[in-house]
Amino acid sequence: MKLYVCKNYDEMSAKAADVVASVITLKPDCVLGLATGSTPVGMYKCLAEMNKAGKLDFAGVKTYNLDEYYPIKASDPQSYRYFMNKNLFNNINIDIENTHVLNGEAPDTDAECAAYDKAIEAAGGIDIQVLGIGNNGHIGFNEPADELVAATHVQGLTESTIEANSRFFSSADEVPKHALTMGMAPIMKAKRIIILISGKGKHAALKEMLSGGITTKNPATILNLHSDVTVVCDEDAYNG
Ligand code: F6R
């Protein structure tokens, strides 16, 4: 794993944006795997600024997001589709038809997930996958468990994730109890992975991942099996 320890959140965001921008510059029709949550917001802001300044072109870029709550309407301000439109897609010159988020209203979730994995393959696979990490080591919504699921699937959220995500809702009761999430296979098939990690709350999960061991109790540790992972964290996350 390539590790960058940045002074603070803003430096982390700028460094991560540079890495993603270099992929887009080298391959203007690349496929990005994207994440939501508070961690990548600063990076999305930097990417949008580069686009506005005419330094980065998203016209040929395709995106696939990691996950979406279930059930949820795309128009719900808590949905990940809404989040992506607001924090990135509405602020860059991407064709919205080229942006993909799992459908939180899909009547047949298994069919939705299977079609998503096929669509990623048909697009040529993900050139760079952006990840955040849960306090418990989850990536996407692949939660710690005895077994991890390879394919994109419906996932019940753990109490700790519902609690962590309740900050975006008026109460924990309103957090959907399920999500559709890319499984470990589409994540690990990405040609390159960048994981952004900020804040003291992520310290334990980060340290365990960097120790090089692999356990399904911390799904991010599986990234140790991938040959091209860039970790961009801040000092709070690194030092605890
Ligand atoms: C979001 C996602 C999640 C988050 C993780 C960290 O698409 O896949 O795994 O990356 O929950 O969330 P934040 O950044 O809010 O701490």
Descriptive report:
With 240 residues, this protein is of the alpha/beta class. It has a single domain, classed as Rossmann fold (3-Layer(aba) Sandwich). Helix 1 packs across helix 2 (41-52). A seven-stranded parallel sheet has the order 1-10-9-6-2-3-5. Helix content is 32%, strand content 18%. Fructose -6-phosphate (F6R) binds at residues 35-39, 66-67, 132-134, 138-140.
Briefly summarize what is shown.
It contains 8 helices and 10 strands.
The ordered H/E elements are EHEHEEHEHEEHEHEHEH
Helix content: 25-40%
User: What is the CATH class?
Assistant: Alpha Beta
- Rg measurement, Å: 16 Å
- Ligand roster: fructose -6-phosphate
Low-confidence stretches: none
Supply the CATH architecture: 3-Layer(aba) Sandwich
- Global geometry: globular
Give the biggest beta sheet: 7 strands, parallel
Task: Estimate the mean pLDDT confidence.
Answer: 97
Number of strands: 10
Under CATH, the topology can be stated as Rossmann fold
State the domain count: 1
Distance between the termini: 20 Å
